[in-house]
Amino acid sequence: MTTDAEEPALTIDELASRAGVTVRTVRFYGTKGLLPPPVIGPRRVGHYGREHLARLALIEELQRQGLTLAAIERYVRQLPADLSAHDLAIHRAVVASWAPDAVETVTRAELERRAGRRLGDSDVERLAAMDVVRADAGAYRVDLGLLRLGVELLDVPLSQEAILASRNALIEHSRAAAHELADLFRAEVSKRDAQDVKSLSAHMQPLVVQALLTTFQRSLKEELREWATESVTDGLIRRPRVASGASHAHPARPA
Question: For the domain with range 1-98, which CATH number is right: 1.10.1660.10, 3.40.50.300, 3.60.21.10, 3.30.230.10?
Answer without folding.
Answer: 1.10.1660.10
